[in-house]
Amino acid sequence: MQKRHLAIIALILLGVLAWLQYQLWFGVGNRQEAAALAVQLEAQQEKNQRLQQRNDALAAEVDDLKGLTSGGAAIEERARDEFGLIKPGEVFYRVVDEQAGQGQ
């Protein structure tokens, strides 16, 4: 009788072990799903790093435009480059590269 009880207990333990193994390999949150999530996490971290670098560059540009770091030099440079503005009393000269003009 005692052997029969031990056999039943062993069978139950074996069933629990099989169920746990099934959950580990094929159930919700299995090893394959965890590996896929790790890959997604790494890709998201790389994307976040690129976006953080972009945000830092934009913040530096905003500081320049506000005149916090260079005393308005960035605003003056933008006005000259983008709008062709000059200061009173300055003379504007445009230098054209002849070789560049012929190649187009």
Annotation keywords:
single chain, 104 residues, mainly alpha
What report would you give on this structure?
The structure is a single chain. The chain has 104 residues and is mainly alpha-helical. The chain has one domain (2-88). It is 74% helix and 0% strand. It has helices at residues 2-26, 31-66, 73-83, 98-102. The model has no long low-confidence stretch (mean pLDDT 84).
Describe this structure in a few short sentences.
With 104 residues, the protein is mostly helical. It has helices at 2-26, 31-66, 73-83, 98-102.
Structural class: mainly alpha
Strand fraction: under 5%
Overall form: rod-shaped
In total, how many beta strands?
A: 0
**How far do the termini sit from each other?**
100 Å
- SSE arrangement, N to C: HHHH
Helix content: over 70%
Rounded to an integer in angstroms, the radius of gyration calculated over CA atoms is 35 Å
Which spans of ≥5 residues are poorly predicted at pLDDT below 50? none
Helices and strands in order:
Layout: H1 2-26, H2 31-66, H3 73-83, H4 98-102
